[in-house]
Amino acid sequence: MTTQPLPHGSASPRFPRYARVLSIAGSDSGGGAGIQADLKTFSALGCYGMTAITAITAQNTLGVRGIHGIPPEMLQAQIDAVVQDIGVDAVKIGMLHAPEIVQVVADAIRRYGIANVVLDPVMVATSGDKLIHDETVAVLVRELFPLASVITPNLDEAGWLIGRKIADVADMASAAQALLDMGAQQVLLKGGHLPGDWVVDLLAGRDGARQELGSQRIPTHNGHGTGCTLSSAIAAYLARGLPLPAAVESARSYILGAIAAGAEVYTGRGHGPLNHGFAPQAQLVFTG
Hints:
Helices cover about 35% and strands about 20% of the residues.
């Protein structure tokens, strides 16, 4: 068991208790991304996972067939139910399909004083399907960028946000700065979409700190849910008490293991999932 002070967003100071992570995201019927990937990740990293579902998607390894948005009042009810009773140590935010959904999430973060917020600005599925519209993106930037501890866009998402293509590692530094200028507190810009055998991610902060995180590319067709898994792993490690840079490094280590463990496993006929449970950790319990 581990001792940790009670963070913001907690319902009560009762101990012992689990490390608690809330995923606010869409449901993936294929199980590889979204809420399903988040819950697998939380469990694998020894955390107690909870959900507030923003949308139900009909999708598989080949693509997205349909999206059904959850009404804003139902999303708010889910968040209220979780935070008021169980409490949260960290939040991962994924697909938010409409401006009013973004507003519900932003209002809840402010109302409950929730810390350790990881925002994955999900805009495009692995298959290339566009998931949200420009109006929603504008509200997301205005309302959630300033509230998030870190945002985790890939290069396509970052390029959409800043209005230009990111062609190489040198472009990543200026792109990260542009995202910081848009209100983000910290940016983890994921460079996996660039060609080459060496993958570089960039962690950048408003204080000018920059950290390049590199790793060998793992050859595989199974990349569905990679971004969801990374952001939820960061949230899990924040809930466990790690500072952000260490949480990012630990999350990257976990996802590299999950990719490698599932690299040659066939699930469906398209982009398969990671192996989230390749090395599960025991459930973490805080004692007070």
